[in-house]
Write a sequence for this structure.
């Protein structure tokens, strides 16, 4: 078996259908197995997989386990030389995953590899990034739109690549399409199940680096990511879960004091951005909406702990 593909789905029936339909052409000549873990969807996702994709193995988790735990449920049942963790809100063009597979298994020391992600209009979107640094939030405070900062100071934690950018080693790749050679998975281990959603791939990439492996952005292929359509169903939950996972990641890898430093930096950045949006001329509705989002992020930094109840 060349490639094992694991897709975790929660109430994403239509997105999942399109994703699964794209996979035969995307994997081309590869011997492939596909596992869908359904997190107790209420929209008929499981029935759709059984009736329309009989070759796909369905695992019903019995509850909303989150991304990391649901993937870990499937991983022991995979046999491929590489494993692909794939979001249901992706569409994989013909040959895309075959190219990514050859890239990942053809280089020594690859921990994980991911393609250029593009939106539904074909424009590159967030694909890789740097491990978080508090300075990135302070730079966001000083230059919110990154207009006058240059060079390394203009970098953001998450990066939208240009089509001209070559393949390169990076700190982490986005988990929407996350390929891991089997040997690297055995060396680094499964995802940390404390991350219900968000930062589980960043954490895995950090651990991969500690194990002496490289994480690669692969510019030789691309996958469409309908970003946020799966996670976007749960609105305020996503905002709070992101911050809870962010704090968990920081405490795990940089210590408890780092959490306080990042909370202060985020409060400054998002509070300032909220004020600027409220004062910005034109597009009043759009500016007010963004101002509210930034204000919500800033307010969360005032909470000593963030309690998050997973949606059911």
């Amino acid at each position: 078996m060349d490639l094992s593909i694991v897709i975790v789905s929660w109430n994403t029936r239509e997105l999942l259908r399109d994703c699964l339909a794209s996979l035969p052409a995307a994997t081309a000549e590869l011997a492939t197995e596909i596992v869908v873990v359904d997190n107790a969807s209420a929209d008929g996702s499981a029935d759709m997989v059984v009736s329309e994709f009989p070759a796909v193995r369905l695992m019903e988790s019995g509850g909303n386990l989150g991304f990391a735990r649901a993937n870990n449920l499937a991983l022991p049942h995979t046999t491929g030389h590489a494993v692909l963790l794939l979001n249901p809100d992706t569409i994989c063009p013909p040959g895309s995953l075959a190219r990514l597979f050859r890239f990942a298994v053809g280089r020594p020391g690859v921990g994980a590899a991911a393609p250029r992600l593009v939106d539904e209009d074909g424009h590159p979107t967030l694909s890789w990034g740097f491990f978080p640094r508090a300075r990135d939030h302070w730079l966001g405070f000083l230059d919110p739109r990154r207009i006058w900062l240059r060079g390394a100071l203009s970098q953001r934690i998450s990066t939208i690549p240009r089509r001209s950018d070559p393949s390169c080693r990076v700190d982490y790749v986005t988990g929407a399409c996350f390929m891991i050679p089997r040997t690297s998975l055995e060396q680094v281990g499964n995802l940390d199940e404390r991350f219900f959603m968000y930062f589980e791939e960043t954490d895995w990439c950090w651990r991969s680096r500690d194990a002496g492996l490289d994480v690669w952005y692969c510019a030789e292929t691309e996958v469409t990511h309908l970003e946020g359509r799966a996670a976007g169903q749960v609105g305020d939950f996503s905002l709070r879960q992101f911050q809870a996972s962010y704090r968990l990641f920081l405490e795990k890898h940089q210590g408890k004091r780092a959490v306080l430093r990042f909370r202060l930096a985020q409060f400054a950045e998002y509070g300032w951005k909220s004020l600027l949006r409220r004062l910005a001329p034109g597009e009043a509705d759009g500016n007010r909406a963004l101002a509210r989002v930034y204000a919500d992020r800033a307010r969360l930094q005032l909470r000593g702990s963030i309690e998050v109840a997973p949606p059911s």
User: Anything to note?
Assistant: The mean pLDDT is 94.
